[in-house]
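dumping this here before i forget
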Amino acid sequence: MREMRTKRQLWVSVAQRLVCESAEHVGCPECGTPALQVRDMEYGWGTGRGIERYLVCSHCQAYNSVNLRRAGPLADTRLMAAE
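structure:
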């Protein structure tokens, strides 16, 4: 039997999808409407650096933030969501 994902897991999944997909193609985890506004704020230096991704739905006003960190060496620009 499949477990239901928590709201937090849904937001993390959306943040991960936004690494490769445009916000126009990713639905809000709360209402399903593709109306997410994304703001990324970089923090830290050296090995501790990462990005805080702020997500707001302009349709239902749901919001959340997800901490992203660099996946792999610093030269690699891929990101993954930190749970």
